[in-house]
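INTERNAL AUDIT FORM
Audit reference: QA-55
Scope: verify that the stored structure record matches its stored sequence.
Auditor: D.O.
Record contents follow.
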Amino acid sequence: MSNSISRSTWFPLFFAIILAGGIYLGYKIKSNSTTYLFSQQDSTNPLIESLDLIIANYVEDPELGDKYGPVIEKLLSELDPHSYYIPASDMQGIEDEMTGNFEGIGIEFFIVKDTIQVVTPIQGGPSAQLGILSGDKIITINDSLVAGTKISNDDVIKKLKGPKGTRVKVGVLRNGKNDLIQYDIKRDKIPLYSVDAGFKIDENTGYIKISRFSGQTYNEFAEKLQSLKKQNINQLVIDLRQNPGGYLEEAVKIISEILGKKREVVYIEGRRVPKQSYTAERDGYFLDGKVAILIDEGSASASEILAGAIQDWDRGIIIGRRSFGKGLVQQQYPLSDGSAVRLTIAKYYTPSGRSIQRPYTKGEGDKYEADFQERYDDGELFTQDDNLALAKQDTANQYFTKILKRPVFGGGGIAPDIFIPFDTSYYNAFSIQVLAGGLIQEYTYDYYSKHAGTFSQYASVAAFEKNFTLTDAFYNTFLQYCIKSKGVTHSHLANQKVKKELSLRLKAALARQIFGTDGYLYVLTKDDESIRKALEAFSRKELLTKK
């Protein structure tokens, strides 16, 4: 293989790696419905008739069992890209994510050198209450050795998760201690946070990062916003980048805090679903402050509803790149074996009347998913030319914002008011191995666990960001770790642009060890072009209106 690998070879691969973890397209309305997708009373349906004939007359027991899943998957794939089947084995994890909690011991972990390492105990969880610390290594679970046994992430989750009230014993090795510390942990309900961070960027500006819209997102958002208001902010940046969506109601509640009572946020309509309008529920907590919404190609569904409402009412600035383009509403229907179907039942429309669903051909899901590659190939991710983004929208159907009457278009996501190109200046064969391999997280985790005392001088993340300098010696030691210990190749490509980016991420990762996710994102915001543009936009009064 050649040592000279072009951006066109590596970037789509790395882009796919990023998106694979962030694009969850499901979007559902909360419902207690137990209606099943198929009704056995429909004797005129050829599919039902065929199944009945097989079960009644086949020469041997057909033993269909779990064979229904692929059939249902194939049927749904012929409808649209967002109707899909959920196997029973996957249901619990999905429900945990969307309800915003699970039951277990409450730690974030990863496996390094075949050993379970505690990244951080979750605040308020049983592990944190018992005194388990970041940097601890889990050596035994219920007296069975788990270190050095090639244990997988799934195995760890199965051993540590469990019903509230049950117990699990873990043996922990802590730096500076020779003997295992034994903990008998009573499992409890553990929150899964969907609002990653909320802090002040500067004296007047707050920043809130929302990773998805789960059942607790509004409560988490409101807590962050109220805290920021008490710190006298009058400008707010809401980061929805790589947010794949979730519950409609949670997005509506958040918009209510910004938009004002009784303004329409979104409406839905379908063949069997009459038009239903959702409006801001009350006069909220941040009606007069300036607002910027950050989006990108991974912002989908409820994220686009929020951004679309803010844009249509001229309430704030949309910054970033054209959003995913998902304007289809799914309803989840449980099936008798514990599995479920998420079926598209309606389309949603922003307050101006536009549908932002991008085009698709039934049964051609692969082509639909290739949209990201197309954005890369045609240069849309990198160019300032607005026409490229607009060309992917339905420019034949022009709509206008509610206050300033600016033209907006549907049919291809939300086009931002201010475009931010995707920065690939530091992507090459070397940096991709480092970033995709999680080596920054591994290295900083190990470094902090051995040098935690040297960071005690930083009382706040602001003090850390201002006063901690990542030295050339630190960076060079990290490079040697990547090359000699982890076998990273193409080291000659570790140029100055790569150094700048990796140094920033190393510093942010150290901040995460000390101050959690707030610390990590706080450091990254200091070199974030989207945030820089948001702060500039706040000074341009002609683009902003009050309620």
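Auditor finding: record pair retrieved intact. Residues 313 and 402 are 5 Å apart (CA to CA).
Action required: none
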